[in-house]
């Protein structure tokens, strides 16, 4: 056992008596073992003490420890044994051929055995064979070395606990940069199953662990297999007999050694990368030290070699694109700003990488590949092969330009075209230490070259002559040129950063502890350098600003610094606050703004804006305030610029405004005073409510300033809720309106009247405001006094109207008739709203607003109908009809229209008056009317609804009442008709059962009506049917029936008309004479026909006094005529009539009076003098006693 640090022998283990073929360490390093040719296995502890020994029948060829369970597999020529510390026994299994090598899987579940007959047998922990792999060639290709890749492609993350539910968690896929979601589910037996859907197949850790087995056979081939036995890719030809194979700890590389007397390094996919160490004899074993890059090699001649492998960083950078080698054969291009990455896969070792603009060059052992971007988009990451140079080159450095490849070979630089032709060559005095492309036109780019002797040159690709920029005494390690090509930064071998002026060759400054340097590509005077664990940022000649950062600075773009640390490149966002403040300290505002544009915080932008504003650098301040969106300061700058345009150039005044905006009020006041603008200081302090300071700047007795100060002080008192003091200050400053507003808002009536009485009557606006507040505070007396003082009579009238002080309003309108409408129209509306309709009518008439009266009544009527107040609706319709009659009387132009409306409204009034009783009968549990009365009412209503049904009236209710009362009184025929009619209507649910029952029971009654119910025509003595298709007129003589307005029985009245030429006054006078009846019997019938009616006139030519009544003779008419023939009487007939028997409806003009003759004088009839409705006298007297008025017109 040897110590790897220095190769000294620790201790020889003397328990072995023959050739030792193999040794193996346990995974945890606590046990190791040796195997003997004499079939013995000895297990030693880490303290080199033997603890166990067991034997095989044949010589032992190989041993291997299980990485998890420490189960030991020992293989011999004819069998293999499995020993575990727990069992203390060895289970052996026979094999058909000699075993040459063995290897456990990562999870210790399976053991692979390589045999001399070219077979690989994969067995489980119990020794049962699960998979058998047969190599081509069979016995001629014995499998001499096998090894499982120690790193699974999928690495599960560690979970703190597992639940019974399915858990989603993340797994890193080592073969790509993506993350995939897997599912963990519990199976019977408390086993967990990790699954992912892959190509529609379920991949499980129980079936496929993604373990890869590398197999090396003496058919001189290397092959790879899955655990399932499926081969991965094709066999790789080795050209030597492999004796040993070993993976690195993470599985990214593997080592192969054998008959070629060297150990070669391969990728995990089998791509040869290079030679680790050449030996003088066969290499029989090689191993990698766990978790490191150390390799140990054992040879046939007994030598043991120990190597350390160093994997250098191969990369290239241009601005924000960084290309680097990955897995030795791939190239990854990373966009440092967008963090996008693209992988370019390769099958060979990548030796050098160069990147420039849209070009990428990759050098491999036998060729150089040149790639280009697909497009000119700055964010494009798609590369395609542009050219291939199939030639082997040896170089120290590789540089690519737009059309050329530059190779550095010690002191020599070679320029090659993309086709591989050498175009130009430069030979330097010393070794080349650094090359950088600094840009230029395609095909004419410039290069910076730094030499070991301190010389710095500039080379152009199209020029064979090199230009010496300068020479220093120390060797060059790193170079960079500023954005404008005026300055050169050099890091030498003494870790010093030196900055030169390229044109004068002068050393501008130098800084220690630098290992790399980079100029800012967006700012000429800024550079950064790294060293000693710090990042240093330097602006111009200011001191360096430092912050901790590990790695090498390789680029500086704006506020991003690109830093390479070990193998990873990162973009570090660095705020540029420190250099910005360095410029601000020296009042270099424009330069500070340029630095800020690279990236500073909002607070830094505001500080820059304030400093520039105080320095009166308005352009820079405006840009900075725009960045922080400060509109307030932008308005200030805009106003100052406008003032400057108009010729103002007082810088002290500008600075005073700036100080005032910044809250530096005392400094601002001093500058205002110094610049002769004390009024501005006064205004500023007044606005700030700093009145004590403001008084210091009052001019010598300037009343205007004093008044302004008092006014602002009053405003302040108002704002701090001291209204009394504010009112007094406003009054002393002459601001009466504001004093009035405050007093009014607080309800101080005494203060208001005091102000109003002190004001002059010419000050109309303040007085009007006082009156407004008096009205609002319910003090109409003070308001009237104020209006009288101003002389505003119209406002006074409106005040009286609004406060309903009608007597004062009427008195004022009497004195000033022009205000008649302003008084009476609101008065009428108020009366109408108070249900005093008659007074409202008079008021509307007095104001000459008949249409308004009609409109109000129509609205009231409509509302009454909607609310089912049908008695009110009848009353309102009667009022409407009388209103229309009044309009027709006053306006001849509207006479026809108004008379039509009069008759229509009279009809609706009667209909709604009658329906009121029907509605009460159907809705209320008890009825106040006799069955005969309800029977007559429903008949009357049904006959009145022959044309159309007014709003709110229900035919169902009417027919239902008629049906019930007809059935009760014996009018069965009429009842059946009513029930039949009801069947065709939509009946409410509450009546449905009653109607259906009534329809059934009426069928059991005789189909005729009681004779007592049949109405009689008092003109022609004809019995009329109960159901009359003509309506409320006689079917024989067409004489309209006259109904009692209470019981709705047919009254014994016949309407008669006057002869032409007889006036109403004359007719009444003739009736009042009551002369003896005279008759002249000459049958002289005269027929008169007009456009509207036919009449029969009987002229009396005898003067004989007879007992016959002349009026009775007038009642006769010609039988069989379908037209109505009215009764027309002459003067003689009028003289014969008794005053007791005649009823006259004395309608106002333009209507004619209506005359009715009672044919039964003993039955007394009374007519309402207001609405002219007819009643039986006893019914009328009873109604008057009940209602104290006529039920129809409420008079």
TrEMBL record:
Intraflagellar transport protein 122 homolog TPR domain residues: 576-957
Keywords assigned by UniProt, alphabetized: Cell projection, Cilium, Cilium biogenesis/degradation, Cytoplasm, Cytoskeleton, Developmental protein, Repeat, WD repeat
Residue ranges occupied by any IFT122 first beta-propeller domain in the UniProt entry: 1-154, 207-310
An annotated GO BP: intraciliary retrograde transport
Stretches assigned to the IFT122 second beta-propeller domain: 315-569
CC per GO annotation: intraciliary transport particle A; non-motile cilium
Highest taxon of the lineage: Eukaryota
Domain IFT122 zinc ribbon: 1010-1054
Main location: cytoplasm
Record's subcellular location: Cytoplasm, Cytoskeleton, Cilium basal body
Protein's UniProt name: Intraflagellar transport protein 122 homolog
Organism expressing this protein natively: Vidua macroura
């Amino acid at each position: 056992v040897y110590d790897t640090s220095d190769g000294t022998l620790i201790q020889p283990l003397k328990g072995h008596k023959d050739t030792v073929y193999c040794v193996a360490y346990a995974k945890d390093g606590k046990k190791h073992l040796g195997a003997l040719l004499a079939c013995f296995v000895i297990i030693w502890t880490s303290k080199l003490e033997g603890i166990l020994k067991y034997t095989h029948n044949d010589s032992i060829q190989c041993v291997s420890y299980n990485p998890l369970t420490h189960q030991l597999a020992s293989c011999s020529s004819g069998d293999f044994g499995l020993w575990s510390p727990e069992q203390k026994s060895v289970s052996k299994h026979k094999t058909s051929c000699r075993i040459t090598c063995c290897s456990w899987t990562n999870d210790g579940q399976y053991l692979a055995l390589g045999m001399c007959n070219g077979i690989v047998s994969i067995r489980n922990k119990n020794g049962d064979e699960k998979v058998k792999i047969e190599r081509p060639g069979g016995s001629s290709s014995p499998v001499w070395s096998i090894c499982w890749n120690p790193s699974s492609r999928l690495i599960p993350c560690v979970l703190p606990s597992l639940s019974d539910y399915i858990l989603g968690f993340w797994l890193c896929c080592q073969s790509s940069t993506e993350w995939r979601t897997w599912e963990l589910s519990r199976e019977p037996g408390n086993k967990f199953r990790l699954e992912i859907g892959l190509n529609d197949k379920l991949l499980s850790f129980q079936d496929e662990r993604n373990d890869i087995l590398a197999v090396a056979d003496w058919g001189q081939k290397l092959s790879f297999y899955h655990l399932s036995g499926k081969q991965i890719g094709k066999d790789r030809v080795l050209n030597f007999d492999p004796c040993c194979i070993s993976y690195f700890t993470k599985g990214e590389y593997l080592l192969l050694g054998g008959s070629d007397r060297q150990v070669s390094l391969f990728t995990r996919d089998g791509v040869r990368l290079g030679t680790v160490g050449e030996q003088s004899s066969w290499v029989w074993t090689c191993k990698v030290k766990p978790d490191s890059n150390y390799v140990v090699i054992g040879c046939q001649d007994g030598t043991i070699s120990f190597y350390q492998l160093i994997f250098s960083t191969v990369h290239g950078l241009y601005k924000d694109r960084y290309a680097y080698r990955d897995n030795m054969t791939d190239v990854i291009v990373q966009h440092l700003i967008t963090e996008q990455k693209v992988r370019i896969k390769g099958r060979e070792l990548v030796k050098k990488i160069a990147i420039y603009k849209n070009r990428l060059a990759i050098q491999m052992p036998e060729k150089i590949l040149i790639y280009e971007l697909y497009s000119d988009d700055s964010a494009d990451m798609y590369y395609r092969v542009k050219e291939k140079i199939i030639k082997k080159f040896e170089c120290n450095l590789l540089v690519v330009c737009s059309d050329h490849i530059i190779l550095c070979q010690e002191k020599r630089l070679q320029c090659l075209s993309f086709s591989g032709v050498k175009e130009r060559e430069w030979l330097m005095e010393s070794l080349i230490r650094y090359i950088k492309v600094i840009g230029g036109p395609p095909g004419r780019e410039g290069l910076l070259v730094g030499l070991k002797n301190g010389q710095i040159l500039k080379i152009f690709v199209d020029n064979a002559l090199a230009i010496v920029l300068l020479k220093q005494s120390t060797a060059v390690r790193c170079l960079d040129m500023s954005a404008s090509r005026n300055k050169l930064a050099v890091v030498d071998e003494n870790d010093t950063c030196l900055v030169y002026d390229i044109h004068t060759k002068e050393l501008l400054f130098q800084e220690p502890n630098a290992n790399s340097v980079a100029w800012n590509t967006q700012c000429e005077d800024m550079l950064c350098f790294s060293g000693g664990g710090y990042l240093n940022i330097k602006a111009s000649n200011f001191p360096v600003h430092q912050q901790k950062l590990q790695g090498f600075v390789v680029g500086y773009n704006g506020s991003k610094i690109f830093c390479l640390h070990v193998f990873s490149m990162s973009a570090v966002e660095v705020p540029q606050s420190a250099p910005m403040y360095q410029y601000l300290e020296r009042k270099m505002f424009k330069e500070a703004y340029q630095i800020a544009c690279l990236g500073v915080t909002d607070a830094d932008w505001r500080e820059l804006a304030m400093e520039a504003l105080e320095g009166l650098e308005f352009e820079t301040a405006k840009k900075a305030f725009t960045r922080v969106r400060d509109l307030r300061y932008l308005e200030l700058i805009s106003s100052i610029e406008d003032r400057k345009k108009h010729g103002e150039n007082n810088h002290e005044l500008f600075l005073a405004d700036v100080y005032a905006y910044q809250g530096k009020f005392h400094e601002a006041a001093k500058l205002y005073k110094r610049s002769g603008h004390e009024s501005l200081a006064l205004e500023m302090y007044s606005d700030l409510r700093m009145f004590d300071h403001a008084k210091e700047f009052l001019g010598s007795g300037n009343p205007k300033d004093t008044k302004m100060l008092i006014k602002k002080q009053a405003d302040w008192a108002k704002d701090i809720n001291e209204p009394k003091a504010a009112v007094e200050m406003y009054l002393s400053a002459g601001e009466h309106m504001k004093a009035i507003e405050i007093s009014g808002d607080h309800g101080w009536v005494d203060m208001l009247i005091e102000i109003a009485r002190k004001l002059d009557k010419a000050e109309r606006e303040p007085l009007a405001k006082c009156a407004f507040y008096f009205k609002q505070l319910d003090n109409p007396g003070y308001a009237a006094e104020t209006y009288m003082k101003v002389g505003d009579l119209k406002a006074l009238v409106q005040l009286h109207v609004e406060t309903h002080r009608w007597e004062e309003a009427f008195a004022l309108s009497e004195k000033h008739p022009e205000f008649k409408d302003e008084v009476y129209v609101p008065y009428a509306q108020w009366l109408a709203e108070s249900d005093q309709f008659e007074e409202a009518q008079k008021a509307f008439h007095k104001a000459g607003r008949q249409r308004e009266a009609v409109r109000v009544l129509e609205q009231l009527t409509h509302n009454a109908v909607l609310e089912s107040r049908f008695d009110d609706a009848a009353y309102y319709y009667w009022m409407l009809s009388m209103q229309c009659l009044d309009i027709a009387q006053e306006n001849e132009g509207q006479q026809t229209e108004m008379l039509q409306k009069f008759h229509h409204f009279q009809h609706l009034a009667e209909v709604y008056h009658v329906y009121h009783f029907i509605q009460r009968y159907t809705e209320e549990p008890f009825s106040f009317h006799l069955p005969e009365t309800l029977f007559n009412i429903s008949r009357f209503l049904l006959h009145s609804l022959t044309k159309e049904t007014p709003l709110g009236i229900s035919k169902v209710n009417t027919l239902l009442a008629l049906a019930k009362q007809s059935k009760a009184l014996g009018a069965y025929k009429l009842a059946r008709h009513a029930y039949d009619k009801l069947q065709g209507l939509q009946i409410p649910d509450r009546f449905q059962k009653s109607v259906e029952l009534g329809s059934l029971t009426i069928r059991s009654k005789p189909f005729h009506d009681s004779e007592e119910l049949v109405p009689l025509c008092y003109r022609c003595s004809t019995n009329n049917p109960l159901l009359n298709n003509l309506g409320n007129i006689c079917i024989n003589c067409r004489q309209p029936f006259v109904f009692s307005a209470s019981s709705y029985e047919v009254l014994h009245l016949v309407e008669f008309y006057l002869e032409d030429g007889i006036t109403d006054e004359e007719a009444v006078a003739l009736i009042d004479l009551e002369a003896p009846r005279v008759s002249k019997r000459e049958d002289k019938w005269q027929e008169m026909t007009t456009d509207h009616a036919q009449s029969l006139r009987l002229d009396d030519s005898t003067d004989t006094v007879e007992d016959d009544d002349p009026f009775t003779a007038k009642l006769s008419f010609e039988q069989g005529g379908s037209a109505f023939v009215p009764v027309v009487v002459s003067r003689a007939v009028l003289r014969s009539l008794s005053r007791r028997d005649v009823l006259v409806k004395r309608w106002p003009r333009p209507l004619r009076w209506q005359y009715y003759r009672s044919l039964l004088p003993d039955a007394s009839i009374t007519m309402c003098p207001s609405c002219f409705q007819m009643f039986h006298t006893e019914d009328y007297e009873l109604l008057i006693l009940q209602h104290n008025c006529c039920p129809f017109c409420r008079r």
